[in-house]
Amino acid sequence: FHRLGGPDPLDYISLYFNKGDEENGIPPHWHYISFGLSDLHGDGRVHRVSDASTPSGFGFELTFRLKKEPNETSPPTWPAAVMQALAKYVFQTGNILCAGDHVSWHCSLDNSESRIQHMLMTEDSQLGTVSTVFGSVTFIQIVGVCLEELQAAQQWNGLGIIDLMKSVPNVGSAYLITDMRRGETIFEIDPELREAVDDGIATQGSNLSGVSARCSFVTAKGDDDDDDENSSHKEDKSKEKTKEEDEIKAPKEDNNTSIQDLTDNNLENNRTTSRHSSMSVSHDRNSRMSYASETGNNEPFELIQTKYFDTIHLKFNYEAGVLLPLALR
């Protein structure tokens, strides 16, 4: 466990079988529920001690509903690896996952050939929010989506896409059950939904509030300094050029936080999930975001000081670079 110095931030994940409701189009499915993002102990070892009037721990737990295959007798374990990866992101960044957020995973969630390669977040329709002696806890459900659905959420908003998914038969029902065998997007099933998204973008714009990305920068000497040095000296100096890297976050919208290294490291220990996943998290405009170091440590003194550079060359990962204009718009 994370509180005992282990690699997994969640204390445990409970698995339940839900027989569904055929009359309401809810298929039998496996229901996964995390424990550990909220305060389970109240002793200050993992989360700050709180009371019933404040959020418990991070204020939420994760859930996931996976459609049960006809001949399946036991639940797959790969959803637990996905939930641990998301929880590790939360613990390391302090950023909260809320309804409307989306996660770019960039590979099939179960390491198959499935088109379900990304995730949206919504409030679990059955569990909702509960009050405990250590504070309130909201159950945030992971919903597997296709690339086109993720892109629509980025350009418009996650909750809007969630509502559209509920309206499409056999896509997830009111419980938004993830079907890894789903081969069509909601826009292929019902082309009119694309028009609804376009109208939403035109009238409401994107709900992306900002982009949190892995960013590196390199300082470069000015031309005047180079002119004062002989060629051999410049060659020596070029070898000593200081390259400074730091993980920084730009203000967020649906907030996109790239944590490729975090995901790869976690999935290296979970063979049921692709070890080449490149995960990035985007937060809704109403999300609570932390601007602390992604490592969770105190900022070094040199990062608190103001520095001035003649030239700065910034490098962002591709997806953050694509989404950044939406956040700045």
Automatic annotation (TrEMBL):
Q: Which InterPro entries match?
A: SUFU-like_domain (IPR020941), SUFU_C (IPR024314), SUFU_N (IPR037181), Suppressor_of_fused (IPR007768), Suppressor_of_fused_euk (IPR016591)
Q: Where is this region: Disordered?
A: 220-294
Residue ranges constituting the Suppressor of fused C-terminal domain according to the UniProt record = 196-329
Sequence intervals crossing the membrane: none
What spans are recorded as compositionally biased (Basic and acidic residues)?
230-255
A cellular component term from Gene Ontology for this protein is: cytoplasm
Residue ranges under compositional bias (Polar residues)?
256-281
| One Pfam family in the UniProt entry | SUFU_C
Taxonomically, the superkingdom here is Eukaryota
What residue stretches are annotated with the Suppressor of fused-like domain? 6-182
State the name under which the record lists this protein: Suppressor of fused-like protein
Its organism's taxonomic lineage begins at:
Eukaryota, Metazoa, Ecdysozoa, Arthropoda, Chelicerata
